[in-house]
Amino acid sequence: DKSYKFVVCGAGPGGLAVASSLGRRFGEKSIAIIEPADYHYYQPMWTLVGCGIKTLEDSRRKMADFMPPQADWLQTSVTGFRPNENIVETADGSTVKYDYLIVAVGLQIDYGKIKGLPEALEDPNSMVSTNYSSLYAPKTFENVRRFKGGHALFTFPTIPIKCPGAPQKIMYLAEDYWRRNGMKENTKISFNTTLGVIFPVKKYADVLQGIVKERGITVNYQHKLLEVLGDKREAVFELLAEDKQGETITVPYDFLHATPPMAPLDFMVGQPISDQLGWVDVDPKTLQHKKYANIFSLGDCSSVPTSKTAAAVAAESRVLKRNLLEVVKGGSPRLEYDGYTSCPLITSMDKAILAEFDFNVMPLETFPIDQGPPRRWVYRLKKDFMPGLYWHMLLRGWWGGPGFARKLMHLGDHSK
Ligand code: FAD
Ligand code: UQ1
Asked: Could you give the ipTM of this predicted complex?
């Protein structure tokens, strides 16, 4: 069976950012990437797909076009890990040996946790969709377009989820679309979230509070979606507030954008490299595995307690690469990840808030101006600049996040 110096599991942004750099540095025959998919999706674009601003095709590229030229692409799935033997098992029945392992297999959308949701998503006439899948993001826009007023309901599940801003970004886009198309008058909009706050970072939550108030959006806290009754167009929520425990309510809707809960991939649960829940058990600062020094992980599949985003992947990739090289050279990890994550919170069809924060959910802003208010240039950054940064810089291993730019633009301010 095969053997490589580096084996990278998954060719999402995490896997490709690391593999591209390793490929340039270590050359032919040193790296294998195990990835089953034919296509790579730029998932952050699905928010815009859901409101007809981009198409699903805009978010998709052939995987082959982004595989580092020096790496061997093994087009199969990882099925298990034997870290004591430095072996990965794959779906084609073979094994791959490594000196160093990088795990970046992402997470799964757990549709099955919400009774009736899979059926409602599949039904083309149901007015139920989710931007969290390439299968249903285009349906979101179909539903936005054919909505004729009534109750538009948006949900936020139990955490962790990837890009925790996305469940409300589509709400602001849809609200703006309906306003521009004369559909706002007879429309009620609700955001039902399991959380007790609208966003985990207070600075941005305060701004968002003002926005929902101004636009007449109702936020229902501590509401957990349990079931979708697609035929009746009703959603059942469990109330999580202490004084209401065990109570459920049934809410009629005419439009539903559901964000399902998310979970580690099934095969990751119970692996020797996984924690209790199934996340790869790494040190959140060094990204090195807590038990196996030759294993690293980044991105959505890791146990790192920051908001799971491509922006976090960028910053993590920089730390991981540096620390991995130290270990390859016989040393130990030196660079520490600060939890940097970012989420351009789209607040209308022409403005967004550039939310950037760290492990302590404290703002960690790149630009030397107040990033609290929604701004037009941030929307343009999200819509027109980020895709290029992603395809040509991050996936090629050239983009390690804006940390250096932040320090440059805050010269003399040692708190940043
Ligand atoms: P993924 O991108 O999920 O890649 C995992 C890869 O592993 C895939 O190619 C998959 O095919 C492969 N894989 C799966 N199983 C196996 C296996 N068994 N063996 C081998 N390979 C496997 N981030 C932002 O920064 N900003 C945003 O505005 C933003 N908005 C978002 C909006 C939406 C609707 C969604 C869904 C996501 C958004 N994100 C955003 C989050 C971002 O897309 C993810 O955090 C990012 O893609 C994570 O990268 P990853 O490499 O860890 O995992
Ligand atoms: C980022 O680096 C990134 O990954 C490429 C994103 O994902 C699409 C982002 O949304 C953001 C905001 C960043 C951070 C970059 C800058 C320039 C602030």
From this structure: 0.99
